[in-house]
Amino acid sequence: MMVQLFLSEPLCNDNGVSDVAKKRLSLLKKLESIIWTSIASSSRSEARLWLCNTISCMNPITPNQHCNVFVKLLSSKQPKRALAVQLLQMIFEKRPQKAAQILTKKSYMVEKFFKGNPRRILLWFDNFSHSGKFGHRRGSRALSQFAFVNRDICWEELEWKGKHGQAPAMVATKPHYFLDLDIQRTVENFLENVPEFWSSDELAESLKDGEILHIDTSFFVDYFVDLMYKEDSAEVWQLINEYLKEESFSVLCHHLLIVLEEQDLCAFLGLIGEMLSPRMDSKEFGHPSYWLEIILSTCNGCFPIEDLLLLNAVINQGRLLIRLIEDEEDQKGKIKDLVFQICATSTFTNLWASLIKEFLKMEKVEVLKWLGLQSWALHHRLLEECKNPESWEALFMENGIVFRKSDGHPLLSPEGFFEESGSDLECGGSVRVRRKKKATARQKKRRRDYSLDADNDNELVDFDSMGGWQGLQSRTGNWFLSTDGYSSSWNSADLPEHLAKHCFSTWMKWISCQSNSVA
User: Fold this and answer.
1) How far apart are CA 91 and CA 87, in angstroms?
2) Residue pLDDT, tens place only, 415-467
3) Does the residue 149 lie in any domain?
4) Quick check: is 223 in a domain?
5) Which of 149, 152, 158 is nearest to 180 (CA)?
6) Average pLDDT of the residues in 8-29
């Protein structure tokens, strides 16, 4: 039985058979229940990650808008510590100099960082060089410069590994003598007896590149979180605002949304919805986030997270969802039977005319859910039904999809005629063309051996036994399709997902047009 993709818009009239629509909706509800059971039982976190990826694709959010959304979350009554930690880690990684500008003004915190921690002391201050003062790095350079300039108050605090200390004049001529310092004891002395060093310009200069943040990131993250929530530091909030505006919305979503609790994720989506225009007429229906933008702009934040997880899984992650279900033996058979029933229909006109009438009575979230489930069922069924290029081409012709082989064959219309690729590509304008093949070229091709598939140990294919290039094409199959304006070459592995998404966007256009005409 050939799969019907329902790509021809039905005429909506009063002759729709409501029982047909109710039966279809009943089957889709059963499918929804089984899919949700699979998601909820073992893959809810993965489904959340899928949804976060879709959110990151949203286009109409400006830098100021997404900054305001994240700041509102961070500054809510219940502190979002996990979100703040993740955000600060991003800032330390990508904008360490800006974070260090705040740190250089907090000498007491720098002292606290080193006090009682030999590891941190050695990592920062044990960086003297044989090449002299210009080779000293990090805290070593700050320590040596401060010691020379303020030798009258701190030189005695320098601890040397040898039997006697070094005089300032001697070290000035031979700066590599600093290599003989006992770094740990010297810094501990400075912590106890030289407070001027910790607020000095020399130390501040060594901190300004932000490299110190990476010695123990968690320490400074905790400190900055305290500055945010306990001291309400204007400098830290300004740093956060600037970074949020500079960073892309996509990057922020990928790194920050994964740490939110589900209720906070819902709050985030509600805030995003307030910034979206409810008019989606000009939106590209094939965009992965357009359905989400429709929901957020029209539902005023009143949408269950479960519906969003399910919708996103069936619309944007059909292939991964199928793999997930294939791993569950008890669900796989039930899904297969349901999908067969959903796709086994010969009453196309009555079914969709009736369904559209039912959809116009529903909320948009519900409509999107049923259309998403229907498209996913088609995705699943196409995997079962189309096993070779011949079956795919029969499907194209049955459903009015113009196609051509990706090796440069002319377009083939649903009527079975070849079309010139340089002329009108619509189905109705097909013309017969002659294809001339040179015998010499054909013979040369048949003498060649080609590697068919790396997974088959680079097995060589005999073109005489395979029927030449057409034989190879019959085993692989790649087509340009009218569904996307012939812009991509589709193979058998990717076609089910592509056609399912194309069907979904096509159906959404119908519903959108019908809703506008009713309104």
Assistant:
1) 6
2) 555 444 333 333 333 333 333 344 444 444 444 443 334 344 333 333 333 33
3) yes
4) yes
5) 158
6) 76
- Give 359's contacts (C-beta < 8 A, 6+ positions apart): 366, 367, 370, 511, 514
Q: Diameter of the chain by CA atoms?
A: 106
Indicate whether 53 belongs to any domain. Answer: no
Distance CA 456, CA 90 (A): 44
Q: Is residue 279 in some structural domain? A: no
Q: How many domains does the structure of the chain reveal?
A: 1
Give me the pLDDT at residue 13, please.
58
Domain that holds residue 244: 68-250
Backbone dihedral angles phi then psi of residue 299, each to the nearest 5 degrees: -105, 0
pLDDT exceeds cutoff 90 at 72: yes
Look up residue 134 and give its two tokens: 């210009």
Structural tokens at position 424:
């009108």
Q: Residue 276 carries which DSSP code?
A: S
List the structure tokens of 276: 């979206």
* Plot region of 6 (φ>0 → left; ψ -120 to 50 → alpha; else → beta): left
Report yes or no: 406 and 480 within 8 Å, Cβ to Cβ: yes
Q: How far apart are the first and last CA of the chain?
A: 39
How far is CA 431 from each of CA 93, 403, 424, 485, 511, rounded to the nearest angstrom?
Answer: 61, 14, 10, 19, 34
Contact partners, residue 125, CB within 8 Å, separation at least 6: 138, 139, 140, 143, 183, 186, 187
Whole-Å CA distances, 473 to 154, 390, 392, 403, 498: 82, 10, 12, 14, 20
pLDDT band of residue 345 (cuts 50, 70, 90) is: low
Q: What 3-state class would DSSP assign to 491?
A: strand
Cα separation, 166 vs 119, whole angstroms: 25
